[in-house]
Design a protein that fits this description.
Layout (H helix, E strand, L loop, with lengths): L5 E5 L4 H12 L3 E6 L3 H8 L4 E4 L5 H8 L4 E4 L10 H19 L3 E5 L12 E2 L10 H14 L6 E7 L1 E3 L9 H9 L4 E2 L5 E2 L1 E3 H12 L8 E4 L3 E2 H12 L7 E2 L1 H18 L7 H6 L5 E2 L2 H6 L7 H15 L11
Parallel strand pairs: 1-2, 1-4, 2-3, 4-5, 5-7, 6-15, 7-12, 8-11, 9-14
Antiparallel strand pairs: 10-13
Helix pairs in contact: 1-7, 3-4, 4-5, 6-8, 8-12
Length: 332
């Protein structure tokens, strides 16, 4: 890119959003962030050098101010925790943002959705052409937001991006913490044969993919899965190596794992507590599904630049620095 673009990142102080900001800075793009956080908190997270608009997708005046002079929007904002926010933020907010883009003359958006919109049924190899069957309220709202975005493609270039399970440093949900703690404590067990496939992707690689798609003419108006799949055993062994502990080799029967998961799910509903073993995790520990990023690699053959293995090492180091893995000798 020879000409600096003016980029707006919605949700720029969130887990994924702040990595977008870092990637755009390294590409010498001009960055503006739309964030609901108070200004001092945004400055503390992002530092100096970023134009900031405080507000959210539900405020038309905020959107007009945020979009002034912008060339491309990276829509990373979204609600994932409170079900009451799913439709107002993920669907209606996306509609307002796209409409505001058209009114403001913004011609391009990269909209971050989720691979979860595809659901869990169907073939083992998943691509962008796999029919969608979202399974819960969050996935349904992201699927509806995609439909909204497609409805604007006759007025502007909208690229849809579907990341798989995103992990990395500063993840507020700490997706890998339970796994790493089970490894350091020696509690980890494979379910059945342990021959599952995982569809994780390191957060920085997601941000890099979205930037690459934003500058690729062939990506405009298209949909892309962003996933870095690997075998469960490879992922677990890489995590053990990063933690400085022995790789696990013990297994539990499938029937026993299912029974324990049913019991713990019932206990969670009764007590409101979260337990490390759930039916969803047992299902994931046995899944052979692979979400393919072949379409992305046709646009960007060298992707991912970092990869899940290095991402695991960095995440383990971050957890160690926070004192969350005191029993482990985390490799630096």
């Amino acid at each position: 890119m020879n000409v600096m673009r003016r980029c707006l990142v919605t949700g720029g102080t969130g887990f994924l959003g702040r990595h977008f900001v870092e990637v755009l800075r390294t590409r010498d793009e001009s960055v503006r962030v739309l964030s609901r956080r108070p200004m001092p908190e945004v400055r503390e997270i992002l530092g100096q050098g970023t134009d900031i608009v405080v507000g959210d997708l539900r405020d038309a005046a905020t959107l007009r101010r945020a979009l002034e002079g912008i060339d491309v929007v990276f829509n990373v904002a979204g609600a994932k925790r409170r079900e009451a926010d799913f439709i107002p933020v993920n669907v209606d907010g996306t509609r307002r943002l796209l409409a505001a883009c058209c009114e403001s003359g913004v011609s391009q958006m990269v909209h971050v959705s989720s691979a979860g919109v595809i659901g869990t049924a169907g073939k083992l190899l998943v691509s962008e052409s796999t029919p969608c069957s979202p399974q819960n309220g969050y996935e349904q709202s992201k699927h509806l937001a995609e439909e909204v975005a497609r409805g604007f493609r006759d007025r502007m270039a909208v690229t849809l991006v579907r990341p798989a399970n995103v992990f990395g440093e500063a993840d507020p949900e700490r997706h890998l913490l339970a796994l790493m703690q089970s490894l350091t404590s020696g509690r980890f067990r494979y379910v059945g044969k342990g021959d599952a496939m995982l569809n994780y992707v390191y957060v920085r690689d997601v941000a890099e993919a979205c930037w690459a798609l934003s500058v690729a003419p062939d990506a405009r108006g298209e949909t892309f899965i962003v996933s870095d799949p690997c075998a469960l055993t490879d992922f677990v062994e890489a995590a053990a190596d990063a933690l400085g502990v022995a790789a696990p080799h013990r297994h539990v029967p499938v029937w026993l794992a299912w029974g324990a998961a049913f019991a713990l799910d019932a206990a969670a509903r009764a007590t409101g507590r979260a337990f490390p073993l759930t039916r969803a995790k047992v299902h994931a520990a046995r899944s052979r599904r692979v979400y393919s990023s072949e379409k992305l690699r046709r646009i960007r053959p060298e992707w991912p630049a970092i990869g899940w293995r290095e991402g695991v090492r960095r995440t383990a180091a971050a957890y160690g620095a926070l004192g969350l893995l005191a029993a482990a000798t985390v490799k630096s």
